[in-house]
Amino acid sequence: MTITTRDCGAAKRFYEPTLRPLGFSIVFDWPARGRAYLGLPAQLGLPAQPSSLWIVQRSHPGRVSVSLAAADREAVDAFYAAALAAGGQAVAPPGHRPDYTAHTYAAEVLDPDGNTLEAICWQAEPLSRAERAA
Fold it and tell me: 2, 16 in Cβ contact below 8 A?
């Protein structure tokens, strides 16, 4: 996945802390070319995972919508908090998304360039009767 931006430095300052709760980090940084590669670091002695997200600076970036898997509700919550702290704009706060599935929990933000970014986990407990009534 490639996300284009007008300012790669600003995008890195947004995406690196925002995606950290989902396990991502900057694996390759090429400031002179306005590019950064975020991926999953090596785990269990295995090599780093393939590219997960490229950030590429362009004069006229496009707008995309990216959904990324989160391990659990806590990771979705941390993603949302990190995104807002890094300058993201709230679209949908963390919560159950019964319109997706009974077990979906997600949060959605806009990055500084207007791209939509969502973290989703599918291991969430469905809403209780009390939560549905609230």
Answer: no
Q: Give the total residue count for the chain.
A: 134
Q: Which amino acid is residue 70, in one-letter code?
A: A
Burial code (b: 16+ CB inside 10 Å, e: under 16) for 36-59 equals: bbbbbeeeeeeeeeeebbebbbee
- As beta bridge partners, residue 57 has 5
User: In angstroms, rounded to a whole number, what is the distance separating the alpha carbons of residues 66 and 87?
Assistant: 17
Residue-level pLDDT at 33: 86
Q: Are 55 and 77 in contact (CB under 8 A)?
A: no
pLDDT tens for 38-65 read 887 665 454 555 557 888 898 877 788 8
Residues in the chain where the model's pLDDT stays below 70: 41-51, 124-134
pTM (two decimals): 0.78
Burial of 7 (0-12, 13-18, 19+ CB in 10 A): middle
Query: What's the CATH fold of domain 2-133?
Result: 2,3-Dihydroxybiphenyl 1,2-Dioxygenase; domain 1 (3.10.180)
- Enumerate the domain spans of the chain: 2-133
